[in-house]
């Protein structure tokens, strides 16, 4: 569905984007690293948002970062191998991985002694919808969600811990195009046997509730781009005559987070490119919603391992797509609630 999302984005269906330059500036700190001197000096940890770097742990981390910055690619590879860490990826990726290793060691020790930590959420829930599509979508084509997948990441253990997947019966265009079937692997029989979106959303909400997300545990939604929430879910809720769910009004756009953290242009933040640059290969069937979600989750896990503090950076407000500035308070998604009718 990645190509379809790109096409939709180009047409600007149903949403408005905030100023791009302002959006990129506000996102520069969205993946912060604890590094008060040298590279990343303007970035802070959640517990240090007030600007207090007096704790000795930050000086130790800064010294380690300076040493790592001077290492060659081969030295980085050898050190990562010695520490039994992943040695794949380009030089900048390996540098961030090694810095993250030392940072986590220091902050774990600091947390045990009552000092600073760097965790925003307990869980991150990756969502990557598949939707109805045509080979050349007309400008007024309304995409309907036909696969609802979720992949749950534990940010403390850095593991995928659970998944959810259901197919959805489309209402406006119940007959899938040949192009859509070939692209997604979702057959006509799969959607014919599925429930309408409101019923599937209700079971997705129950799945989140059973895992005590938003109540016992702090969590955030993560997507590959802005389209899943701002376009697909937004359009689908209108078609299904239900209110847009509160828990999905803010999310982590991993493309924005990846670009800001690894300092690459947005043209290098497609799913396949992000995997390649991190030394990973796509696992599963491309454009399967669940497989795409798993691979997005693998990128998120690698970014967390490399020291990126993933945090919410986009939101929906009054039907518009807006940026969440890095200065905004870090909040988890609210407890999910069952779908409500618009009427």
TrEMBL record:
Residues 19-31 have a biased composition (Basic and acidic residues). Residues 123-309 form the Exonuclease domain. GO terms for molecular function: exoribonuclease II activity; metal ion binding; RNA binding. Its cofactor is Mg(2+). GO terms for biological process: regulatory ncRNA-mediated gene silencing; rRNA processing. Its EC number is 3.1.13.1. Pfam families: RNase_T, SAP. Keywords: Cytoplasm, Exonuclease, Hydrolase, Magnesium, Metal-binding, Nuclease, Nucleus, Phosphoprotein, RNA-binding, RNA-mediated gene silencing, rRNA processing. Residues 1-52, 323-343 are annotated as: Disordered. InterPro entries: 3-5_Exoribonuclease, ERI-1_3'hExo-like, Ribonucl_H, RNaseH-like_sf, RNaseH_sf, SAP_dom, SAP_dom_sf. It is an enzyme of class 3 (hydrolase). SUPFAM superfamilies: Ribonuclease H-like. SMART domains: EXOIII, SAP. It is found in: Cytoplasm; Nucleus, Nucleolus. Residues 68-102 form the SAP domain. Residues 332-343 have a biased composition (Pro residues). This is 3'-5' exoribonuclease 1. It comes from Mastacembelus armatus.
């Amino acid at each position: 569905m990645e190509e379809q999302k790109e096409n939709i984005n180009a047409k600007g269906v149903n949403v408005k984007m905030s100023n791009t330059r302002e959006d990129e500036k506000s996102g520069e700190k969205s993946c912060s690293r604890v590094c008060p001197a040298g590279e990343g000096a303007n970035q802070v940890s959640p517990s240090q948002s007030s600007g207090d770097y007096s704790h000795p742990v930050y000086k130790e981390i800064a010294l380690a970062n300076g040493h790592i910055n001077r290492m060659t690619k081969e030295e980085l590879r050898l050190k990562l191998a010695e520490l039994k860490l992943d040695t794949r990826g380009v030089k900048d990726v390996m540098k961030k991985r090694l810095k993250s290793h030392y940072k986590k060691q220091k902050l774990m020790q600091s947390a045990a002694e009552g000092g600073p930590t760097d965790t925003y959420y307990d869980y991150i829930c990756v969502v990557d919808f598949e939707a109805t599509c045509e080979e050349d979508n007309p400008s007024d084509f309304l995409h309907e969600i036909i696969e609802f997948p979720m992949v749950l990441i534990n940010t403390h253990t850095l593991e995928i811990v659970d998944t959810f997947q259901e197919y959805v019966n489309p209402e406006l265009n119940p007959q899938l195009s040949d192009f859509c079937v070939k692209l997604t692997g979702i057959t006509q029989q799969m959607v014919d046997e599925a429930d309408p979106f409101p019923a599937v959303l209700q079971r997705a909400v129950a799945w989140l509730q059973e895992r005590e997300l938003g109540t016992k545990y702090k969590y955030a939604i993560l997507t590959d781009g802005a389209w899943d929430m701002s376009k697909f879910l937004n359009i689908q809720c209108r078609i299904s005559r239900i209110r847009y769910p509160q828990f999905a009004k803010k999310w982590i756009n991993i493309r924005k987070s990846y670009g800001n953290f690894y300092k690459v242009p947005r043209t290098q933040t497609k799913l396949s490119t992000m995997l390649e640059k991190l030394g990973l290969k796509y696992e599963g069937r491309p454009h399967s919603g669940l497989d795409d979600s798993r691979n997005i989750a693998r990128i998120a896990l690698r970014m967390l391992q490399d020291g990126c503090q993933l945090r919410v950076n986009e939101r929906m407000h009054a039907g518009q797509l807006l940026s969440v500035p890095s200065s905004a308070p870090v909040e988890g998604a609210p407890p999910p609630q069952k779908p409500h009718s618009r009427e």
